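Progress against Task 2.4 (sequence-to-structure conversion) is shown through the following example record, which the project officer requested during the mid-term review.
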Amino acid sequence: MSPADNELLAAWRAVANAKLVEFRQQCWRLAFLVKQGLVGKVAAIDRLWEIATAHALVRALGEDRVEAILAEAFAGAEFDPICAEVA
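Structure tokens generated for the chain above:
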């Protein structure tokens, strides 16, 4: 690989890593809002999945990895089954 190719690859990786870091931060932020009752858990997870799909994280990381990131962030979030049935 040429030095120019290495630099282009480094730019690609930096953007991909930034997306992943920001996705994780948003997972934790929305999980906190779910715990406070400001956002529904199902709505938050559905929207985060849409975001991960739109930004190619599901394709790049795989469904299992994205689900693991979501599960980690939302592990302690309360789940209201009545709201889930309505949604």
